[in-house]
Amino acid sequence: MRFLFYLLVLFMCQSCIGEGSEKIKESLKGVKECIALEEIVYQRTEGLLILEKLSGSAFGKKPEELYYKILLYYQQSQPQLVGMCKDKELNLSMAAYEKINQSVEMLVKDTTSFDNELFEAFLHNLKRQRSLYFHVLEDSDLQHMHSYMLECYLQIVCFIEDIEHFRILAHQGYF
């Protein structure tokens, strides 16, 4: 959501510039890229932390193979993301990591519905990632990122479908 807000503000600023300086336009593109990368790193970190907690839960033992595929996806796509982040000033700190970790820990505290809530939070995280990748793909200023974003988008869509299929089977009592 934060990404969409920043894009809206940047779009408004860019329209105010009109036929202004190319240097300002390039600067705005750089800011857009940094905001997108920050949000991607934030969402992936949250997803990994939830996945770590979920794979240790009773509910997580059923789709362990799916969780392993998602973890493998994160590991394989990480070097390219790190490369895109190189030499960028991202506004990510240890405090941001702690904030993500605390929000995940809050899900764990309620042990009565821990498994289901954590599972739903993970699915929601994947849907937010899907939305983020889609918005970057729509942005012509970020074309140099489109190849990576398309790969990630398609993979996340597959994971969402797999998880929703598993959820249907679990509710029908197959697991």
Model regions low in confidence, pLDDT < 50 over at least 5 residues: none
- Major sheet characteristics: none
The run of helices and strands is HHHHHH
Distance between the termini: 34 Å
- Radius of gyration of CA atoms, rounded to a whole number: 18 Å
Bin the helical content: over 70%
Coarse shape: globular
Estimate what percentage of residues fall within beta strands: under 5%
Number of helices: 6
Mean pLDDT: 82
* Assembly of the depicted chains: single chain
**Structural class determined from secondary elements:** mainly alpha
| Number of distinct beta strands | 0
Q: Care to describe what's here?
A:
By secondary structure, the protein is mainly α. Helix 2 runs antiparallel to helix 3 and helix 5 packs antiparallel against helix 6 (146-171). It has helices spanning 2-17, 22-55, 64-85, 94-109, 114-138, 146-171.
